[in-house]
Specification:
Helices cover 38% and strands 20% of the residues. It has four helices and six strands; from the N terminus they run βαββαβαββα. Bound molecules: flavin mononucleotide. The site of flavin mononucleotide has 19 residues, from helix 1 and strand 4.
Length: 158
């Protein structure tokens, strides 16, 4: 059976809240999903999942350092994430504060690893974004994204 992980870094809880909503939605959509802070994840752990979802606060338009370190550590088994489903989300302080460049940076690392990324023509196109604490709009985008990740992963990996 396919399985997934949502990995996040969060200091003040905004990204963590998004991670928990996405993971819950994935589980409710029939994809067994763990939700873990990046400090509880080792790069080798990534090999055991069919879908890997990564969420970061926007730090100067990029992912937070501990998440970048996780990707850098994965170079030891470069090529072995090929074909897994990937997705990303981010929380920032400001509109235009770099949410989408942060998501794109995560997605770039995933694409370089051979992962499969699905956009969204109707919801947040690149991945859910929040300004500060997730509001109702963000929460529903997280639920929607979780459903879409689960559907794609089950199609490709069941
Ligand atoms: C080092 C640092 C850099 C940041 N850079 C940005 C930024 O470039 N743009 C922005 O909108 N917010 C920026 N922020 C604000 C955070 O992205 C924002 O508060 C986010 O919601 C925090 O997520 P968290 O609650 O999961 O820790 C920065 C915060 C820190 C600590």
């Amino acid at each position: 059976m396919a399985k997934a992980i949502v990995i996040y870094y969060s200091r003040s809880g905004n990204t963590k809240e998004m991670a928990e909503i996405i993971a819950k939605s994935m589980n409710e959509s029939g994809l067994k999903t763990e939700c873990k802070s990046v400090d509880k994840v080792k790069a080798e752990d990534l090999l055991t999942f069919d879908a890997i979802v990564v969420g970061s606060p926007t730090y100067y338009g990029h992912m937070a350092g501990p998440l970048k370190q996780l990707f850098d550590d994965a170079v030891g088994f470069h090529g072995q994430l090929d074909g897994k489903v990937g997705a990303a989300f981010s929380s920032a302080a400001n509109i235009g504060g770099g949410n989408e460049t942060t998501i794109m940076g995560i997605i770039e690392a995933m694409l370089i690893s051979g992962m499969i990324i699905q956009g969204d023509p109707s919801g947040d196109h690149y991945g859910p974004v929040s300004i500060g604490k997730p509001d109702q709009r963000v929460r529903s985008q997280c639920v929607r994204r979780g459903q879409r990740i689960a559907e794609l992963t089950k199609k490709l990996h069941s």
